[in-house]
Prior knowledge:
- By secondary structure, this protein is of the alpha/beta class.
- It has helices at residues 40-51, 68-72, 77-87, 106-125, 156-167, 184-189, 237-255, 281-298, 316-328, 338-341, 351-364, and strands spanning 3-6, 58-60, 93-94, 101-102, 131-134, 173-177, 196-203, 226-231, 259-264, 303-307.
- Helices cover 36% and strands 12% of the residues.
- The chain binds ligand 9RB and zinc ion.
Amino acid sequence: MNTGYVWHELYGWWDMGSGGLAPADPRMGLQPLAHWAHPDTKRRLHELVAVSGIIESLTRISPRKATEEELLRVHLPEHVHRIQRESDAPKGGDAGDGNSPFGAGGYEIARLSAGGAIALVEAVVQGKVDNGYAVINPPGHHARSDHGMGFCVFNNVAVATRHVQRELGVGRVAVVDWDVHHGNGTQQIFWEDPSVLTISIHQERCFPTDSGFVEESGAGRGEGFALNVPLAPGSGHGAYLYAMSQVIVPALRAFKPELIIVASGLDAGIHDPLARQLATSETFAAMTRQILDVAGDVCGGKVAILQEGGYSPHYVPFCGAAIIAELAGIEPLFDPYLAVTAGSRGFDLEPHQRREIDQIVDETRSRYPG
Ligand code: 9RB
Ligand code: ZN
């Protein structure tokens, strides 16, 4: 496969300050330490792709900065201009929820992240590559039209989707968000839009804690074009693949998109500090295989995978590299962590997980988009 690949050094310069989840504050007992979303995790993914030699099999695609006009297709002017203003301040600003700080000059990096998404999706649509992966940063799936949150400033997936719809004549786009957190921003942006099917598979009530329920399905003309697959904590390889094959793949086959964009958080990985799922590099490779198979049947294999979250600096690189190797059709990279986790209880589909996923099938099958 001719697989596109996006990375830029400035993604590794995204400055979240110090503190962990919230900014350090001794009055709250919060000691300074590298923020959980420190960009080194994404840089280490890129460096594993480079050092392993996987990069030799990929087509490098250079990102550009998304223009203000491109951002405004998705976001309100107040949001874009506030980020721009705060980025000009000596110490930067916050994406919108007080827990998502960024340093001076962050506007430029956030535009480069959205522009990296545009560049990859455009190359896939134009057939310059068959599929591709963009290790972009900051992430985007929590960013709503009116404000950022959850470490996300601009909704990269949404900006790229609008770009190919407006500029390249693409109609139906499916977004599969396997980040362990709910893709609430993407869902909100396309809530009433039947041209974009948003699917989010996530740990139930992980973040945000008040969205991502099965009952959320879109509204107006977009009714039925949002799909949520909330999983119990402790879901692993078996549960993820069962949910993909029973719910997500059938919905994609019914919708028949012209392009599939994956919002690829790697924080469902077993070593992630921000969630409690048990996915391994093999899980991510197998989910990629499922997406490639359905894409091969419905949209000529057009799949663009865009980085979202992922907070284990040790394990994220192996999960990302496994996805990229699967996209490119090359040998998987040896994952030294598998030896530690193999055989752990919860890797196979547990009876309660099967029951809950079957229930999601029952509740959603009648409203699959067509
Ligand atoms: C804090 C809150 C967060 C913020 C972001 C994430 C993960 C994002 C991600 C998880 C929890 C709230 C610190 C709310 O990876 N997305 O893909 N917590 N945010 N209140 N407080 C005090
Ligand atoms: Zn996440």
